[in-house]
Amino acid sequence: MRLWKVGRALTVAFITAVMVAGGVFYGLVVLLDVQEIDHTAKLDAKTLFDLVKLSFGVVAGSGALVALVVAYRRQRVDEAGAHREATRLHTERFSQAVDKLGSDSPAVRLGGVHALAGLADDAPDDSQRQTCIDVLCAYLQLPYTPDPGDGPDHQEEHHRYLALRKVRHTILRLIGDHYRRPRGSHRSWQGCDLDLTGVTIDSDMNFARAVFSSGVTFARAVFSGGNVYFGDAKFSGGSVSFNGAEFAGGSVTFNGAEFAGGSVYFNGAEFSGSDVYFGNAKFSGGSVSFIGAEFSRDTMSFIGAEFSGGRVSFFGAEFSGGNVYIGGAVFSGGSVTFDRAVFSGGSVVFGSAAFSGGSVTFDRAVFSGGDVDFSGAAFSGGSVDFSSAAFSGGSVTFGATEFSGGSVAFGSVLFSGGDVDFGSAEFSGGDVDFDRAAGPVPRGLLDAVGSPVPATVVLPSSWLPHSG
Prior knowledge:
The chain has 2 domains: 55-195, no CATH class; 196-467. The protein has helices at residues 6-32, 45-101, 106-122, 126-141, 155-179, 445-449, and strands at 194-195, 200-201, 205-206, 222-223, 227-229, 234-241, 246-247, 251-253, 258-265, 270-271, 275-277, 282-289, 294-295, 299-301, 306-313, 318-325, 330-337, 342-349, 354-361, 366-373, 378-385, 390-397, 402-409, 414-415, 419-421, 426-433, 457-458. The protein starts with 5 loop residues before the first helix and ends in a 10-residue tail after the last strand. α3 packs parallel to α5. The protein is built from 6 helices and 27 strands.
């Protein structure tokens, strides 16, 4: 903030003081109900002495006011100078740390990483903290030479690769450590943007319960503000864990990420106040687990994701609020499980998803509330299993769903309440099995199946038209 000139500051201060004094005087006159001033009174020695004291008091008050204004200005100038000095020192340290990151020596680079993390902790303001974080993320995004192997002809290159990988892993570990700290506390980076777009994670990256584990950690990371980007990141080996992570603000993006190997865990993660995107992500190997995750607010999107290999599990996940979009996803291989998942609120959309291969299971899933929509989904291959699922509330829609291939099983499903609708569904091929299903026939199912019932569709005898 720019300071006023002394003359202007003193003028404003005097005017303010006079107005305040006048207001106080007027208030006292009103309070004491003074009617008029006695003009016949004579000026005696006591009154004269009181006037002299009053004059000196006014002069002393004016001097105090001047001193107050000057002291205020001096304090502001000192604060501005201290901020400039802190900024200058921060800039010098920043330049030195960045120079270290560009060193040919992995050990010197490692020192630069720790220096930048320390600078982010001590930054005079949020913008300079964000700059330090951006540089660390940019280092992770830089291209690097893949591991040449540990053969006798490549030992030196292999050792250098391992040393530089240690630098990258240290950055990830430091990021996890700072996102684990409560927002507003010293060394907390919560609320800052984190851009890991295109980063390759090719070894163990444990982002949860890091206090007792080794390696790189995001222990119980809390994403409560800012934006976090893993778009186009490649998870190609090792183990990456977001177990117990909390997504409570901002947005988290895995759009276009590739899960091609290793394991990625979101077990027990809470999605309660942020938008999380897996749009166009590719699940082609390894395993991705959302076991016990809670989806209670805002949006989670798998639109356009491709499940062509590996295993993705939503075992025991709770969908109690917010919106989860899986519409447009392609399930062409691998295994995706929603076993024992609880759909009790919010909206989960599988509309226009393509089930053309692999295995998707909803074994013992509970549909007790909210809306689950399979409208326009195409089951043309692979197997989809709703065995022992319970439809007891909410709305589940298979309208305009196309069953043209593969196997879809509703064996031992319990339809005991809620609204399950197969209106306009098409059964043109593949095997659809409602054998051992219990409860009333779902709305629109018999019309969609047609008469006679195709050999590829198995219904309980109590649902057949002739059984009345």
